[in-house]
Predict the structure.
Amino acid sequence: MPEAPVPDYPRTQGVRFTAAGLRAGYVRTIPVGLGVSLFGIVFGLVAGQKGLSVLETGLMSALVFAGASQMLAMELWTSPVPVLTVAIAALVINLRYFMMNAALMPWLQPVGPLRAYGSLFFTADENWAVSVAEMRSGGRDAGFLLGSGLAIWTFWLTATLIGRTTGTIIADPERVGVDFVGTAVFTFLLVRMHQGKGDWLPWTVAGVTAVTAAEFLPGFWYLILGGLAGSIAGALRDVR
């Protein structure tokens, strides 16, 4: 029987969860949190234009804590709110975390369910990258993950509240282009996520599916179908 391949991560032996690791993760991620704040302010502005109160905006940022999903929810936000559509769209856009967080198993498995799932709740793309780098460099303190996540969470929450509060100062948002902020943010995210010509296949499939569905289906189902079609195309590409 062939020998099993050695994982590309540190072994789970010696993994601990300490307050020192939590502090180190928080401090190390502060510069990243400052960058996330800009996105958070934009979300707060958009939430205000959609009619969310300061309390509602804060609760969404604190409990959902997913920038792309929250922006997508604002794009879908109408009266009455299409709850099912928003929920499915958020699920589709966050499916990536299943695969991403599997990479953190050497840290998560030894510390028990409470600490593991508590840390995962505060995991975002930015602190995930910082934590994986720390783990691969030999870090054994899983508290780093929670600390880095708390840094992103506090900066994100604070920034969204600032954006929501200051957004009321703008009397006519359309004149200064605030109504276009959501489109601009997603365009920026799209450019940042591009990793080469291999992305064009799933992106094209997603775009064509979404445009076609928009012609024949009511509401915002074209977003969900486009996302699913693109995800399936990307998965098949990776398998090949």
Remarks:
- Residues 194-240 form one domain.
- The radius of gyration is 20 Å.
- The first helix runs from residue 19 to 49.
